[in-house]
């Protein structure tokens, strides 16, 4: 076991984080938080939440089943939240598939990926193949933030390696959600480069035992029964920016329930704060509910960057999700220092 350290931050009165209101308890005091770190993970606890960030193994985002809503006792039901994959673009890799590293091969025409051809520009898939990350922790007066980075090390023929993925996650005291950002600083050019992530995350279940319904702001409410049988991502409930109207809000949420008692729980939502950055979003069944999101999908030159910002957390209603979304809407970046954090365009 690695050395474990404990840091405790005392409550403060101020509830403004660089221009963005973050309300706490009714008396206006932010709750304190704790951070514990060892060789395998960073563990964060506030009065509202618990979460872990893995350093080894299945990395990126918030580790599976570590995201606890203390109000209700529910945890996330999947494989992690805001999980990062490959840098990709439209088009098939069939012409050069025999020259690809195995981790870059992309199949299509199946239940997993549907019929739309896509190809990896750089890899590997961060969550399963990066193996080890070195999170950097920023401790503020009423928040704690974690920054992670990874340079891609394999590339398709004719492409370079070395694009930089950066993820920042901010846990504001007094909230049942965190804010995050994923950014790519690319060494390649593309007509429509995008990053694939899980947003908010997949849903493990057996015939809907862990959730009662899903809410997609661009579609509506869908009962769990729609996910009893496998179907590909392009069969239904699929969003594409090149085909569909850009919604006012981009929210994807699952209404949790206790698999043992059937008791209803909170909504666990992932909100993309600028709907226009979403290239495609899946919500389909493939042994579990797959909630993949791809953002970017626009022309980019080597040396440029693109990003998306999110709110991920627990809510009691769709109305509450909408209200929180409207506080933070329109942003794609996230900046953090010990003095505070702010969303940026």
Count of all domains: 1
**What oligomeric assembly is this protein in?**
single chain
How far apart the termini lie comes to 41 Å
Proportion of residues in helical segments: under 10%
Our estimate of the beta-strand percent is: 35-45%
Q: What is the CATH C-level name?
A: Mainly Beta
Which structural class do you get from the secondary structure elements? mainly beta
Trace the largest sheet across and list its strands: 10-11-13-14-25-20-19-16-17
- Tally of individual helices: 2
Q: What attributes characterize this protein structure?
A:
345 residues, mainly beta, Beta-galactosidase, Chain A, domain 5, 7-stranded antiparallel beta sheet, 4% helix
Write the layout of secondary structure elements.
Elements: E1 5-9, E2 16-17, E3 20-21, E4 33-37, E5 41-46, E6 49-54, E7 68-69, E8 83-90, E9 118-123, H1 126-129, E10 136-139, E11 143-151, E12 154-155, E13 164-172, E14 177-185, E15 190-198, E16 211-216, E17 220-223, E18 239-240, E19 250-257, E20 264-272, E21 278-281, E22 284-285, E23 289-290, E24 292-300, E25 305-315, H2 318-328, E26 333-337, E27 340-344
Please give a structural write-up.
- With 345 residues, this protein is mainly beta.
- The chain has one domain: Beta-galactosidase, Chain A, domain 5.
- 4% of the residues lie in helices and 44% in strands.
- It contains two helices and 27 strands.
- The strands form six sheets. It has a nine-stranded antiparallel sheet, covered by helices on one side. Strands 12-9-8-15-24-21-18 form a seven-stranded antiparallel sheet. It has a five-stranded antiparallel sheet with strand order 1-4-5-6-7, with no helix packed on it.
- The chain is globular, with a radius of gyration of 19 Å.
